[in-house]
Amino acid sequence: MNIDWAALGSVFGVSLGASVGLVALFTLGIAGLSRRERAVAQGSGGGALAVTGAYACFAACAAAVAYGIYLIVA
Amino acid sequence: MESFSLILAIVVITALAFDFTNGFHDTANAMATTISTGALKPKVAVAMSAVLNLVGAFLSVEVANTISKGLVDESGIRPEVIFAALVGAILWNLLTWLVGLPSSSSHALMGGLIGATVASAGFGAVHGGALITKVLIPAIAAPLVAGIAALFATRLTYSLGKKSDGRAAEKGHRVGQIASAGLVSLAHGTNDAQKTMGIITLALITGGALAPGSNPPVWVIVSAGLAIAIGTYLGGWRIIRTMGKGLTDLQPQQGFAAQTSAATAILASSHLGFSLSTTHVVSGSVMGAGLGRKGGVVRWSTATRMFVAWGLTLPAAALVGAGAEAVTRLGSWGTAAVAVFLVASSAAIWKISRREVVDHTNVNDTHADGTPADGAEEPAGVITQAMAAVTPPPASPVAGDLTVTIPAQASAPAPAATPPAAAV
Lengths: 74, 424
Prior knowledge:
The complex is a heterodimer of chains A (74) and B (424). In chain A, 88% of the residues lie in helices and 0% in strands. Chain A contains 2 helices and no strands. In chain A, helix 1 runs antiparallel to helix 2. The relative contact order of chain B is 0.18. Chain B is elongated and about 70 Å long.
């Protein structure tokens, strides 16, 4: 019997890092979108940067999902 | 396929039945959080999960043979042994579904296989080391890994998203949850449908209908994929309710964090070679998300019942598997007796389940865990627990049944399995 601590450790590290990173990205994206929503509601400008940032975040998340699908298929 | 004997046909049908129970048992893993936070309508959620499971079954031709390889010595396996193992796994899946507890279908299958193998070839045929490294350690590690990840992810999403509200935020969390739930479904299809394919293929090989080392035939892939998809679509609403509402109260942010952590933990583990049970991962991440929100409460009474069920899964399925194997050894009529016993007890469990129907219409009602809808935000689990204990059975049947059924479960299947033997 030998417990594969290295595999267990890397599963732990990767899970933690990837989930926190992804959730952070996605939350930032959402924050950007709702900032734009507020800006539009108030009729003031300044939403463009927020939206661009938001879509960059979502694109990164989409890439992560695509990588996940790649891992499943491969 | 010329020598397709009756016993092989029975094994294949039983394996597909197990695949079916596996599907509806594990719908909760992918969809409980999406359903309880309202990101998807219940029926839509299970339909999506079913389709993705079906797709997943076809994605990979590499058979997930982890169950049949390494854990037990394959030389001692007859089709009857596999049949007995499946009987143990199916009954345990149905029992845990009846009381609404998420438990690992893979553990049930492994337990059944271990029990049946021990009964058939003695303890020497089971590799104790493999048991610890493949079953025990992952069972402890999975909820911790996913739980801690979900806890930090939840904390972060609340602190980063403090100023996010309104339509955009709502829609965003919905989409995020759906995407991660979809990933979990897809991964589940590739893993669990493959397990059944592996079992059927193994049975066909041991029964001499296939040459050793063959890939699963197309009809095996198609039928296993369909069985798991149909099971998923019918939905284990009882387990979904426990997972989505019973363990903690999930808000969209938490549901999103939990499901994302679960998806990454499942993918990381299957990719890095430390296989974790989907059920354990998702339960852990739901609890982690519950703890991550300020003022969030995890109902430890429900969680404890779930942990107990996890601990019992392997031994209980093993006991039934061993009993069933002993009976099948008596000859063809013994096998027939086990088959009749399986059908009868499945029917009985289904009948009992009709007393308190849980389906897509009431899956989000919270009274099952003793928590009335308006009491969900009350500070302490103590009150809700006390209510659960005091409320008469008709009002909280699941809570009432749980306390009764859990202790009984360990022994219930075993004596039930032995009477045919005793009657000889």
